[in-house]
Amino acid sequence: MGYVDGTVKPPQKYLASSTSTTTAEQIENPSYKTWHVQDQLLLSWILASLTEHTLAQVVGCITSHQVWSLIETLYAPKSKARIMQLRFELNELKKRFLSMGAYLLKIKNIVDALSAAGEPLSKLISSVKPWRVF
Fold this sequence. Notes:
This is Retrovirus-related Pol polyprotein from transposon TNT 1-94. By secondary structure, the chain is mostly helical. 57% of the residues lie in helices and 4% in strands.
């Protein structure tokens, strides 16, 4: 995931040659070549999984990170209104006649949507009200 999310940065493309003393000769960095091959493989997998509409949106992106960032911008709304709506849904959710599995799945889906909308999990956990037992 490091290539896609940008945590694995590309190494320098060229290195200064240690054999040349008078000119600033550069040689291709083998680490960059390895990084580039891996990134292009990931890029091809991502592009192969996109619909035609989404593919048209990412034309011009040359790295897997660029494509992923653009897709994230297009499809992961990070608005405060969306976060507030999801928090409300989570606070109002009741088990009622749902099975325990279905109830927990609903909670998981809301928490996943909050995470995708940019809400830190630590903030979500700290906002949970303690249960009252009467």
